[in-house]
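S1.2 Input.
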Amino acid sequence: MRVFRVFLHPFQSFRGRPMEGYLGVIEALGFNFTPLHYGACAGALIAISQNTALFSLLGTAFGGDGRSTFGLPELRGRVPMGFGAGPGLPPFVMGQKTGTETVTLNSTHLPAHTHAHTYTASGGGGTPAAAVVEVASNSGGKKATPADGDYIAGPGNAFGAVQDNLFLAPTDVTSTALIGGVTVTGGGGFDSAAFSILSSGQNYPFPIVQPSSVINFAVCMQGMFPSRS
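S1.3 Output.
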């Protein structure tokens, strides 16, 4: 005698009638409508009073106030993900929505880097300028070697002989005189410069959606209550 093994579609029994599934089970469908006893995974809020068994399984994980309504799973444009915490991954709870289709980077996401900039400056050029020098106008100098702050004075004259002492300490100066006729020429000083490095980029968001194929998801709303054993 030959024995044949028959695989049934989950929605069909031997007699072609709908076969009960487990309450709360989500099915992936290749057609665009919701079968009998199933609800679309579109986040709808439904009455607890009319779906007490299903509410006892789903609770308010997918929405609702928990008093009169609760929510069905929302899988439109979303990818299902297992709950809990995988190795090296953060924890996720039932019904949690996460992720985004696009992301916009800013400067805090960039690695440390530098921007090259070249600037060639031109000097201000040498400009002659008149100056005056303050010298001592009293007696002749007393020092041959100057110190910081000393004044230039006339050479000293002792016993009719001209000496080489040309400097006076400030404490020895009784009066000063301003001598003109001194010309100072600048050495090509730097004018001034101001520059900035302009920012680039438009901060446009870019897509990060994984390659996907769209199907229909439905949750069983009438069926057998699942057993834990």
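S1.4 Remarks. Residues 52-58 form the longest helix (7 residues).
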